[in-house]
Amino acid sequence: MSRQDSAPRLDPQAAPQDDPAAVDPIWSRMRDEAEQLAASEPFMASMAHSVVLHHPSLEAALSYRLAQKLSSPEMSPLLMREMADRAYAETPLMGCAGRADIRAVFERDPACHRMIQPLLYFKGFLAVQSYRLAHWHWTTGRRDMALFIQMRCSEVFGVDIHPGARIGQGIMIDHAHSIVIGETAVVGDDVSMLHSVTLGGTGKEGGDRHPKIGDGVLIGAGAKVLGNIRVGECSRIAAGSVVLKDVPPCKTVAGIPAKIVGDAGCDRPALSMDHGVRFGEAAKDIVPDC
Fold this sequence. Notes:
Keywords: Acyltransferase, Amino-acid biosynthesis, Repeat, Transferase. This protein is of the alpha/beta class. The protein has helices at 3-6, 20-23, 25-40, 45-53, 58-70, 77-90, 92-108, 116-121, 123-139, 143-157, 269-272; strands at residues 159-161, 166-167, 172-173, 179-181, 186-187, 192-193, 198-200, 212-213, 218-219, 224-226, 230-231, 236-237, 242-243, 251-254, 259-263. The protein has a six-stranded mixed beta sheet with strand order 3-6-9-12-14-15. Mean pLDDT is 91; it is low at 11-17 and 280-290.
């Protein structure tokens, strides 16, 4: 059975509304895993209860977890949690995006064996949820609070995402160390990236100055995508590349500066997580099948 087959799927219309596991299978599975963790590892029981089992919903658990991580001497966990609770209550799509992100990590990261792990341990997932909270403040006019959350996310997780960026759902950031995403960047749905990726500008000019990443793109470790350029959907950017020009859909680019070296190799490279690039004489030999 594949990871995709083993992952619960959200289909409320096809499920009995009196069955909590059918209405929210991801949260139900996370609770089951938390109970198993508490039973198998007594020293982790307190964490399993405080982060998961004490909460009625994933939104409440995320609010608690982010408050604990992002709080500081200047901002208490209680105040941070109040703001997070309000954000999740007023913007249901934040909870939906969180579920999609958990599923993305579970399905694409071979180091993730349980759905509870991103919430407990994975700073890439927690950084993306912190961005979502900061973005809510940014779009509701509370920009100083948004910048405070950005600062804390950078300090705590080593991930610097400007709250003005627009990021879709189903995002997987593996390892996540030294990720930088600029203010006017746009990241589509189902994008995967590894550590040390930069979606940045090329100078000190203002305005729309950051990359636009299409759905399903895979960005390798250390890649830099710079300027107001577009990376077409379902493309691959090889590790260590510096991308300075538009990338067509469904292509693989590599090098400094990056150039097209072949097709993407499969329909959804961000889902396959295949980073391998083979250089051969024939175009078909450039990229292995996914």
